[in-house]
Every structure is written in C-alpha cells, then in structure tokens.
Design a protein that fits this description.
The chain has about 260 residues and is of the alpha/beta class. It has 9 helices and 11 strands. The strands form 2 sheets. Strands 1, 2, 4, 5, 7, 8, 9, 10 and 11 form a 9-stranded mixed beta sheet that branches. Strands 3-6 form a two-stranded parallel ribbon. A hairpin with a 2-residue loop joins β4 and β5. The chain binds adenosine-5'-diphosphate.
Length: about 260
C-alpha cells in the first residue's frame, strides 16, 4: 500500500465527512475553519466534493480565478483569514463533471500536492458525502491526523455516519469526533429549542461507540441565508449561534493539542 508523506508545510490534514449529503458538512467545515483561524491558527479548506463543490459559493469566492505561482503550482484564494482551493474554482460551476473514479482520485491528490498551501496548521478537507473510495485513497496517500463526522439527529443519517466511522477505523484514521448539525430548531424570535427531528441521537451514538461528541449546532435560518450569500455565520457576532461553533472549535483544538499536532 502506497503511503506518501504530506506536502511540506501541511502540519495536519483533517477530513470532514458525512455518511449522507445535505447534512450541513460544508457549512460546518467553513464555519469551523474560520473559527479556528480566529484563534490564530493557520487554516485551509480543500473542497474535495468534486461532484458538487459548494465552498466557493459559501465563501463568496465563486467569481475568483486562482492564479498559478512561479513554482507552477496553483495559488489558493484567501478569504475570511483562511486559504481555499476547490475544483469549483477551476472548472465551470454549471457544467457537470463526468470523470471516472481514477480521474477523481488523481485530481484530489493534485489538489493537495500541487497547490501553494503555504504553512498550514491544518487543512480541513470537505469530503464528498458517503464512504467511498476517495476516503480510502486519501487515507492511503497521506497521513491523516483525524476525521470529523457530521450527522443530523435522524436515524438514517446516523446509520450512515456510523458506516463512515467504521470505515475510518478500518484504515486507522483517528476519529476526532461527531458533530450533530440541525440538532434542534432555534427560534430567532422566542429563542426556544424546538426538537423537530428528535435531539441527541448523535451524542448517544458517540457515547455508545466511545467516540467524542464534539457538539451540536441548531437549525437556524440565518445560517442558511448567510451561507447562500457567501458569508459564513461565524463572521457575524451572533452570540446566540456562535457559541455552538466555539464549543466545537474548543474540542478540535483540544484534540490537536493532546496529539501534539499544533
Ligand atoms: P452538505 O455539505 O452536507 O451537503 P451543506 O453544508 O451544503 O450540506 O448544507 C445543505 C444546506 O443546508 C445549505 O443550504 C446550508 O446553508 C443549510 N444548512 C446547513 N446547516 C444548517 C443549519 N444548522 N441551519 C440552517 N441551515 C443549514
């Protein structure tokens, strides 16, 4: 099995995964990345969701075109204190990608190796949904510090998340923990919790599997509105919502410090 070392300058590669699409993995990735950067860490995002890259839009950089550096590698786009690269920045967003598996794997490897990431404490990789070959390839080609699993409280999403968890374990990628997104509806008017999907499923799963529960994030309309406008909610000083991201940021920082990774 091939096991290359990571490109110089990349201290940690962290995979953000979900068993299922639409659970808010990309939203969580960029808010977490910005939150970590606000603490003085050097953070990058690689949008590895080759078939549906959403980071350019969510970060408001979808009209930017990356330049190429003197070394022939592609330069990242910087926004909100983080560096970003996405296949969505390199191809026409509206044209579907019709690549076969091996091409996708090659493209992802290149996006890690042939991009001028500079010095980064961590590169968060926004993975495609599911537990496919791409996950295996990345864990074989690079040293992965850990994986974060994002799930919603519904049973079906949790079952998929468990599959993902088991897959990472099989390839010896440490699990940083599980995040429950859309945990409950946080009413912006009355500030009350409404547990639409039933809450706490991810926490229970984490406990049962003896994994860390990193925290919950409410379903909150402004998260979506901001995201659609290219402004992650964390950029707005909204105490009602940002405290949930800060708790998760604490946990991720703790994991990296405990593992002497930052
Ligand atoms: P995934 O990466 O898992 O496919 P996305 O991050 O693209 O999911 O999120 C899917 C949609 O849900 C987006 O429109 C996003 O703005 C919205 N969304 C994600 N998390 C939340 C949340 N906690 N509250 C409200 N909307 C959310």
């Amino acid at each position: 099995m091939e096991n290359n070392s990571n490109p110089v300058g990349l201290k940690n590669i962290i995979l953000v995964a979900s068993g299922k699409g639409g659970v808010g993995k990309s939203t969580v990735t960029n808010n977490l990345a910005i939150s970590l950067a606000k603490r003085g860490l050097k953070v990058g995002i690689l949008d590895a969701d080759i078939y549906g890259p959403s980071q350019p839009r969510m970060l408001g950089i979808n009209n930017e075109k990356p330049s190429s550096g003197k070394n022939g590698k592609i330069n990242t786009i910087e926004k909100y204190g983080i560096r970003c690269m996405s296949i969505g920045l390199l191809i026409d967003e509206k044209r579907p990608i019709v690549w076969r598996g091996p091409m996708v794997h090659g493209a992802l490897e290149q996006l890690i190796k042939d991009v001028n990431w500079g010095e980064l404490d961590m590169l968060l990789v926004d993975m495609p949904p599911g537990t496919g070959d791409i996950h295996l390839t990345l864990s074989q080609k690079f040293f992965i510090s850990g994986a974060i699993i994002v799930s919603t409280p519904q049973d079906i999403a949790l079952i998929d998340a468990q599959k993902g968890l088991n897959m990472f374990k099989k390839v010896n990628v440490p699990i940083i923990g599980i995040i429950e997104n859309m945990s409950f509806f946080l009413c912006p008017n009355c500030n009350e919790r409404h547990e639409i999907f039933g809450n706490g499923g991810a926490k229970e799963t984490a406990n049962n599997l003896k994994e860390t529960f990193l925290g919950e994030i409410p379903l909150y309309t402004e998260i979506r509105i901001k995201s659609d406008n290219g402004e992650p909610i964390i950029e707005k000083n909204n105490d009602q919502i940002n405290k949930y991201f800060f708790k998760i940021t604490d946990e991720v920082e703790k994991f990296l410090k405990e593992n002497s990774a930052i």
